């Protein structure tokens, strides 16, 4: 599934950059789950094209969570491609 343009545009918007900066400052740049280096701001209620315009979801600090890459990948079920490979059931494949 291609990434919708509107989502892409949102992530480039000043409003998002600001919300992201506030989040990073509030958490002192630390992953809110493991205390590692927070790199990505996650939406607890997933951002979709239908709720993108709802700032209580897209921009509200309460819906944002600063995560390190590992915790973020885990949250979304995305796995590191380089060092470790997992199949769709989460089984280690080498
Ligand atoms: Zn983490
Ligand atoms: Zn996320």
TrEMBL record:
CDD domains, alphabetized: HNHc (cd00085)
InterPro entries xref list: HNH (IPR002711), HNH_nuc (IPR003615)
This protein's GO CC annotations: cytosol
Isomerase listed as a keyword: no
Domain of life according to the entry: Bacteria
Domain HNH nuclease: 18-73
Molecular functions per Gene Ontology: endonuclease activity; hydrolase activity; nucleic acid binding; zinc ion binding
Keyword Hydrolase: yes
Alphabetical UniProt keywords: Endonuclease, Hydrolase, Nuclease
Gene3D superfamilies the UniProt entry points to: 1.10.30.50
Signal peptide: none
Recorded family membership: Belongs to the HNH nuclease family.
PANTHER family: HNH NUCLEASE YAJD-RELATED (PTHR41286:SF1)
Protein name, per record: Putative HNH nuclease YajD
Organism: Acholeplasma laidlawii
């Amino acid at each position: 599934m291609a990434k919708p343009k509107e989502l892409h545009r949102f992530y480039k918007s000043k409003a998002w950059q600001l919300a992201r900066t506030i989040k990073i400052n509030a958490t002192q740049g630390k992953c809110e789950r493991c205390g590692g280096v927070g790199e990505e701001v996650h939406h607890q209620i997933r951002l979709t094209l239908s709720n993108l315009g709802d700032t209580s979801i897209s921009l509200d600090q309460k819906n944002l969570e600063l995560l390190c890459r590992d915790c973020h990948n885990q949250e979304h079920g995305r796995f590191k491609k380089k060092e470790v490979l997992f199949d769709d059931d989460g089984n280690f494949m080498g």
